[in-house]
Specification:
about 170 residues, alpha+beta, Rieske Iron-sulfur Protein, four-stranded antiparallel sheet, elongated, iron, 2Fe-2S
Length: about 170
């Protein structure tokens, strides 16, 4: 049986525009890692998948190895944080840096552009792989856009040679 053009339904303009909108929205959300709740890649940071980001590097850490990150638990030893660099504690949701010898800072590990998790600390910046934003290790300020706001600070305490999340 053959079907001629006359027998095929013609989509309405409304159907075409709606379908195009749905496809555009899905593509944008997939590209930026956004979910409906506003979090990047999903609401469970432990279950994150970073589709277009580099694998974890030596500059990242899993807080299980460092003793956890909640309620004053030790994140790391001061000797584990390089001067002029830092270390990412993705389970605790923070980046700890040491801008100068003996000075320790902490920031959220979520980029202020689209809430993607940052994945490296190199060359004096905290780096987001999603769109290329970079933040200063000294104060979390934006060093490369598209992020327009600095990384929010996080509270840490240094007790002897231990760094703890406050």
């Amino acid at each position: 049986m053959t079907i001629s053009k006359e027998h095929l339904p013609v989509p309405s303009r409304r159907s075409v525009v709606t379908a195009a909108g749905v496809v555009s929205l899905a593509a944008a959300l997939a590209a930026c890692g956004e979910s409906e709740d506003g979090g990047g890649y999903g609401s469970d940071p432990a279950a994150e998948q970073k589709p277009d980001s580099p694998d974890d590097t030596d500059n990242t850490d899993n807080t299980e190895e460092a003793g956890g990150g909640a309620g004053g638990a030790v994140l790391a030893k001061t000797s584990e944080i390089p001067v002029g660099g830092g270390k990412i504690f993705k389970d605790a949701g923070v980046v700890v840096t040491q801008p100068t010898e003996g000075e320790f800072k902490a920031f959220s590990n979520r980029c202020t552009h689209k809430q993607c998790p940052v994945t490296s600390v190199e060359g004096g910046t905290i780096n987001c792989p999603c769109h290329g934003s970079k933040f200063a290790v000294a104060d979390g300020s934006v060093q490369a856009s598209p992020a327009a706001k600095p990384l929010p600070p996080a509270e840490i305490t240094v007790d002897g040679d231990s760094i703890k999340l406050a």
